[in-house]
Amino acid sequence: MQTREESKHQRKIKRGGFWRWVIASVFFRLILIYFPHNLFLSFRPEVSTPVTSLRRLAEGYWLKQASMSPYAGSMYHGSPLLPSVLGSLTVKRIEGHPDHVFCSLLFVIADIVSNRRYSNQLAIGITYILASGDFAALVYFWNPFTIVACVGLSTSPMENLFIILTIYGACTRVVPLAALGWAMASHLSLYPAILIIPVILLLGYGLDAPPRKLFLQKGFYKIGDNSSSNIHCEQEKMINQSKPRIIFSWRPVMLFFFWTTLWSLYLLVLCGMSVKQYSSLWEMFQRTYGFILIVEDMSPDIAVLWYFFAEVFDFFRNFFLIVFHMNILFMILPLAIRPSHWPCFFAFVYIAISSMLKSYPSVGDSALYLGLLVLFLDELADMQFSFFIFCGYVGVSLLSPVMHNLWIWRGTGNANFYFATAIAYACLQIILVVESVSAMLNHDRKLRKLSVANLLDGKS
Amino acid sequence: MSIRPIDAMAIPLKSAHFLIFLLLVSNIFTPIISLGSTIDQEREEFYEELLLRPLPDRKVLAHFHFQSTAPSSNSNGRHHHLFPKAISQLVQKFQIKEMELSFTQGRWNYELWGGFDPISSSNAKPPGVELWAVFDVPQDQVDATWKNLTHTLSGLFCASINFLESSTMYSAPQWSFRPATGNIRYGMLPREAVCTENLTPWLKLLPCRDKDGLSALMDRPSIYKSFYHSQRLHLTSNKSGPEGMNPGIILEQTLTVVLQPNSQRTSVTYSGEKNVQPSWSLSSIFGRKVSGRCVLAKSSNVYLQLERGLVAELKKNKNNGVGNIASEGFWSGTGFELSVRPDKVFEEENSSHRRGSSVLFEFSIDKYSDSQPFDLGLKWKFPVTWSSEPAPLHASRFLMGSGNERGAIAILLKSADLNDASLGTCSSSNGYKFRVDVFQVVPWYVKVYYHTLQLFVNGQPKAVGDVIETIHVSPSKDKISPGVMEMVLQFPCDVKSAALTLEFDKGFLHIDEYPPDANQGFDIPSAAISFPNFYTSLLFPGNCSVDKSPMLSKFQEKNPVLSYTEVLLVPLTTPDFSMPYNVITITCTVFALYFGSLLNVLRRRVDEEERLLKSKAGKTTPLSGLLSKLSAKLRGRPQETPQSPSNSSSLISSKLLLKVFLVAVLAVAWQYYFG
């Protein structure tokens, strides 16, 4: 009794600390927002991509106000709903004082909501240590990438919010929420559409392995009666036996599909209404998804595709476009088979992969998967190269602006220097993904071994 | 493009031919025959004129004006006597209503050389090539016709006008450039180098080429060392003449040159003064003399124009108070001396300009010949300084910002001292406002954010809605179309300066899209600024000779004042042109690294491997087993192990073969269906 109260008290203290940090970071954001011109963050190629840039959104809004299609010209490539929602906040007053502040506030709110969802995930019990969810939320909140994306006026906090909502909804089995998040996220930036597979797995199998381990133990007790010395054989048997017991529940999945169709139809109707006067839905898809798939804009960003497509010969362009986009899709099957009992981890890996290979990535995307990474802190404790990766992230995020400055502003550097930092960044992300996957598999294996060993010990 | 059947008009054609031949013969031998007006309309006519005007900065403006007219093609089919056949075919094939092509080198100095007279607003052109055309075809065929036209013109004039074919290079202004036309296309090539190879085909269109008449003055070296020269070709065709104009085609060719006369010192030298006007003569500025008229020309005149400011100054200096400047004595008056006695003197009918009225001396060169060439000379008796009449607002355009990522375009309109001259039309008392039309085309790689449009009037920021009356924007599409901005601005009458800024991002191009000299930068074509409240017209008293001269009747037309801004040079970031292969290979390596290592991690089953190793370890230790394998391989002997490696290898190879076969089949299918 006493211990429980104590632990409750401790938790309260912990929660208090958590909220203090959250409020501190919100203040930090507000302070940054009130700097003149937002520290020019909204012009940075690392922060605002052609898809997420708020300047382009303002242009789309202006075109819409001038009774033209927001997709007239090739400025705006986002959702047609965003100008209606955010547009009025981007209008400049005559004194030249931008109203972007409200917009930034909106992003701060988006951040806060995502933050809450992060910390709520802990309540569902995905992690063993109670503070891990809070910790992930704080890491997401205090991640310089998140702060920069929030202050730098891009729409990526919105996208992140919807992705997190998807995962949260799937974890808590709030099917409509998951469906809404998924529909909105894939409407905003196309790539989260792949998350439908981890979401289905999450809804079908439920969260994580604890039930499976129970099965495992159950199975082992059954087998344990006939004493056999070969552990491996037993293990295999156990695994074989435990597999069919994991029930794939179709009901939430079906519900999810139902809600997804509902939300998507709703979104399509909304979009259709908002673009009806000027253009068609087909143009909208061409200008949003088409722009993402056919890498039209070759302005430099932190990925490698812009320079590749600026240099590659035109007749190879289509081939490489197919190859690069297939690269994202190729990994679905192996990832779905192998760590299938970790759908959340699957989602994390996929967010990381798509933020690495997407056409116009920004640091906001990196912030999302780095935040999710912390959720698996315990499993990934013995990840290799973690220090090296950390240093790499720090180094690249310091070097990349320098190289950009040298090339674009001073004219002394060369495009290759900036591209080199982009390559280094891509390599870092690759190492992160590969190492985290291998650490997860190792962890899984160890768990299995340990549980078997425990059982054996208990038996003998 | 349908070729008109000519059989139907074969018989009237013959008679018309005969008639025209007769007329021509009579024209050649008896030039002063006056013909009946009905026949007069059916004739092809050619006029040549030259206007000379001293400019305030010791330069001389020479403006050649050649006009050929052809009656409507029904009367004489496809045959022409004076009119260039190439042009009439062009008009017929592309159904051109109106077209203008100009080749310009140098920039018209609106501040010094004036911005308010007909020459500066219709003959001062932006550098490079400017082409616009109005077609008489259905809307959906306009683009195709324009593309064909650019190719034809590029062949005709030995210029790279065919670059205007690409849809990124031309635009369709709705109302600001030429009012009330629907089928207009407009394109500019600011970096086109203009040279004698463009002038020669242009001269070929004249009946006398440059062999005789006024065009014989066009000495190539003196023209191409000029400060500004612009050769222009304007084409108007009226099929049926519903607007009361003569049916047919009017081809107007002008060459405007600003030359610096060799400083021929007058007898009295004014060593102290820098602004001494140099005395000049035709032979000193062109190095040639006019040795008679082009015999095919209906009229052949040389005019000398003295600007309003100059006339006022001369009047002041004369201080005799002689009222009539156009009187006979004026040309040899106190200010200057002409070497040839003018045939006629006109004084402008002064309506709104209080500055004075310009004076025009006409010299007919009918009476000159090889033995007695025409060489007009102007000798200043004492230094005169004056200034030309500027445009209502002096327009200039510049770039702001640094670096290669973004910038801003600013258009600055500065009021010239309008204290007396032109503000008559703009009186603030009756709420009348000062209207300025802006037409600007920007190439797609300059990505303009139109929502960043800011306006400053007299240094104060103004709300966009207060000043802009109408705005039409068609934003640029990447690699498809340029951005076009048309605006009507309304300023209060007391505007001193107005500025308008637009932010833009600089685009990044594919390496193939950069020109060979990529680091030089890219040109943004000039913007056209027009002032619809102000008209350029030199009105001369109703006089039959003025009416007959096409150049002077052109001057009398009421056209709005138009000026072009500077061409902007935007440096764009360049990628590394030298190593596309490196970029491709390195990027592909990174992707392969991702794919390979992730798949490897996912594929590996550490448990099974360990088990396998352990089961093997039951027989031999893994190290020794490995060693024995290695040694066996080295010796080239098959290892004595229970499972035969050959079996597995054959299995692998058959699998591999199957895979290779599959890929080959896929490739063949792909090639067959999509290749």
UniProtKB/TrEMBL annotation, chain A:
Belongs to the PIGU family. InterPro entries: PIG-U. Its main location: endoplasmic reticulum. Pfam families: PIG-U. The keyword Endoplasmic reticulum applies. The keyword NADP does not apply. Signal peptide: none annotated. The lineage of its organism: Eukaryota, Viridiplantae, Streptophyta, Embryophyta, Tracheophyta. It is found in: Endoplasmic reticulum membrane. It is a multi-pass membrane protein. Keywords: Endoplasmic reticulum, GPI-anchor biosynthesis, Membrane, Transmembrane, Transmembrane helix. Pathway: Glycolipid biosynthesis; glycosylphosphatidylinositol-anchor biosynthesis. This is GPI transamidase subunit PIG-U. The chain crosses the membrane at residues 18-35, 162-183, 190-207, 253-275, 287-309, 315-337, 344-363, 383-403, 415-434.
Automatic annotation (TrEMBL), chain B:
InterPro entries: PIG-T. It comes from Hevea brasiliensis. Pfam families: Gpi16. Keywords: Membrane, Transmembrane, Transmembrane helix. This is GPI transamidase component PIG-T. The keyword Cell membrane does not apply. The chain crosses the membrane at residues 581-602, 656-674. It comes from the Eukaryota. The keyword Membrane applies.
